[in-house]
Amino acid sequence: MKTKVVVVTAGILLASTSAFAQSSTVTGAAGGAATGAIVGGPVGAAVGGIVGGVAGSVIDPPPQKVVTYVQQAPAPSERVVVKEKLVVGQPLPETVVVTPIPDDRKYSYAIVNDQRVIVEPSSRKVIQIIQ
User: Fold this and answer.
1) What gap in Å lies between CA 1 and CA 15, rounded to an integer?
2) Fewest C-beta atoms under 10 Å: which of 49, 110, 125, 127?
């Protein structure tokens, strides 16, 4: 019986935490823990911290001017192909050359497997795949 109550409570807590986290201006683990504590006390704080940490690690999209620049940038003369699937949040292989965006050095881009991708220069993580 105790197990059922804990499982049901955890499910309700996760659903409630998600709803509160969407309207909150505090993001990440701290925001999730605060929201979880409000909803479910100490246990809610722990669960909310985990949920908020995952949700807070989502990468913000680049500004529209960066997306436009990458859409209009000329393709390189040589086609770059990699076996790995391009995934947002994952780094590009070291063999792929990334090009800085002149007006916004927080972003770089590459054209890989005929797809234009915006990446974070220091980690090479894919921020956005432009369709």
Assistant:
1) 22
2) 125
Q: Within a 13 Å sphere around the CA of 72, how many CA atoms are in the beta-carbon half? A: 7
Contact indicator for 128, 118 with CB cutoff of 8 Å: yes
Residue percentage of the chain with pLDDT more than 90: 48
pTM above 0.90, yes or no: no
Question: Using N-to-C axis directions, what is the helix angle for 28-56 and 2-23, rounded to 10°?
Answer: 100
115: CB partners within 8 A, 6+ apart: 86, 129, 130
Residue 99 has a pLDDT of 94
Using CA atoms, how far residue 59 sits from 4, 116, 117, 118, in Å, is 36, 17, 14, 12
